[in-house]
């Protein structure tokens, strides 16, 4: 990607000034760094997804209601969402290269607590430690992905994101193979993966400290030209946050209660339901790979249009489908909907050049917050009605993708 939002024409009729791209001259992406940060993202999100995959086990172990299941997600997502923008804003001003292994260490502590939790309160504490680790990991690692992109920002974000989505997909599979047969304490074995993640992130942090911090200060010294007026930027950010709400509130309902939905509606076993959750999450990982590069080629806005509004027909049909079509629809939904986040994040970064950490923290944090809030609210709704009713209710959320029409229209494709 060579230019960002230069010489753009707005839907409002205003014309943005032509600007010079704020990124350095186009260079070859640092694929070794991208692979490392993506691998660490896989480990980080795999450990986080173990919480999601363990919901049926925890529900039986501690006799939890659906509201309490939602509270676990809320605790994790809330600690992540509140801290991420603050971490991003702080590190925009003062980079902390070695914060990444520290964040992974917090996630490791949460994992150990989860393995040996004697009560629901300790489960919530474990979820909070995992959330803190996520709040530190995502803004800085997203910044490193952009720095290592060689100008191909969408590709770099997709490589980074696919690691996280792959980890999220692997979690239920590992839960089915390891945790269900061997019990809650078998979660402790995954500490070995966390230790490997800490090792990789230490090496990535060393690269960041050596190759960027000093150079980045020199590159960012000149003032960065703003592509749009402040009012337009704020309006576009608000639209993007509505889209994030639509995506993650829907995903919270779909993923947090998917195993229960399959067990109740189709009589699947816990392991069988977790395998279907894996199919959905694996499709999400594949979609993530596609969204960024396509956005680099044809522009962010068309990808956002297709990825949010495009899943609406499948979401509306899903609650009425049999098991075969439920599986098929959720695979399509995961594939298409997951392509949105990389495009949304890079679009927002281009709206506010020079504030990569703050923008990344804001959008990751808001995404986690909406996921947590969605899980809690929909858990209460499920307790008062049914899981099937929840799936009917959330089916309309992707229709909010229509607000994409309000985003500025850029003449630049890359």
UniProtKB/TrEMBL annotation:
InterPro entries in UniProt: MFS, MFS_dom, MFS_trans_sf
Region of interest (Disordered), ranges: 1-26
Transmembrane spans: 66-87, 107-137, 158-182, 188-209, 232-253, 273-291, 303-321, 327-348, 360-383, 389-407
Keyword Chaperone: no
Domain Major facilitator superfamily (MFS) profile: 33-413
Domain of life of the native organism: Bacteria
Protein name per its UniProtKB record: MFS transporter
GO cellular component, as recorded: plasma membrane
UniProt keywords, alphabetically: Membrane, Transmembrane, Transmembrane helix
Any matching Pfam family: MFS_1
GO molecular function: transmembrane transporter activity
């Amino acid at each position: 990607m060579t230019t960002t939002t230069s010489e753009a024409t707005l839907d409002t009729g205003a014309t943005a000034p032509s600007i010079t791209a704020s990124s350095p001259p186009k260079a070859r992406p640092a694929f070794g760094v991208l692979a490392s940060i993506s691998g660490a993202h896989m480990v980080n999100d795999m450990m986080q997804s173990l919480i999601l995959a363990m919901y049926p086990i925890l529900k039986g172990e501690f006799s939890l209601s659906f509201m309490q299941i939602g509270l676990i997600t809320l605790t994790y997502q809330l600690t992540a969402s509140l801290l991420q923008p603050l971490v991003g804003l702080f590190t925009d001003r003062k980079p902390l290269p070695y914060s990444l292994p520290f964040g992974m260490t917090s996630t490791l502590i949460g994992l150990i607590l989860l393995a040996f939790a004697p009560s629901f309160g300790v489960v919530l504490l474990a979820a909070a430690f995992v959330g803190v680790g996520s709040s530190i990991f995502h803004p800085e690692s997203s910044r490193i992905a952009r720095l290592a992109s060689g100008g191909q920002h969408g590709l770099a974000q997709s490589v980074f994101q696919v690691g996280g989505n792959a980890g999220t997909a692997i979690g239920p599979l590992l839960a089915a193979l390891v945790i269900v047969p061997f019990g809650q304490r078998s979660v402790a074995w995954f500490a070995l993966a966390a230790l490997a993640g800490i090792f990789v992130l230490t090496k990535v942090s060393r690269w960041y400290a050596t190759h960027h911090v000093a150079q980045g200060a020199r590159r960012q010294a000149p003032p960065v030209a703003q592509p749009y007026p402040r009012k337009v930027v704020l309006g576009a950010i608000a639209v993007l946050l509505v889209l994030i709400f639509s995506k993650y509130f829907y995903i919270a309902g779909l993923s947090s209660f998917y195993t229960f939905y399959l067990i109740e509606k189709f009589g699947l076993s816990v392991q069988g339901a977790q395998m279907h959750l894996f199919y959905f999450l694996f499709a999400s990982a594949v979609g993530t790979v596609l969204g960024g590069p396509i956005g680099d080629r044809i522009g962010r806005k068309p990808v956002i249009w297709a990825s949010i509004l495009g899943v609406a027909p499948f979401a509306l049909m899903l609650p009425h489908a049999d098991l075969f079509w439920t599986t098929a629809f959720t695979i399509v939904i995961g594939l298409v909907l997951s392509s949105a986040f990389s495009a949304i994040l890079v679009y927002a970064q281009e709206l506010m050049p020079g504030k990569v950490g703050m923008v990344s923290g804001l959008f990751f944090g808001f995404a986690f917050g909406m996921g947590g809030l969605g899980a809690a609210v929909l858990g209460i709704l499920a307790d008062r009605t049914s899981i099937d009713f929840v799936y009917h209710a959330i089916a309309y959320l992707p229709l909010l993708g229509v607000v994409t029409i309000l985003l500025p229209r850029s003449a630049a494709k890359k």
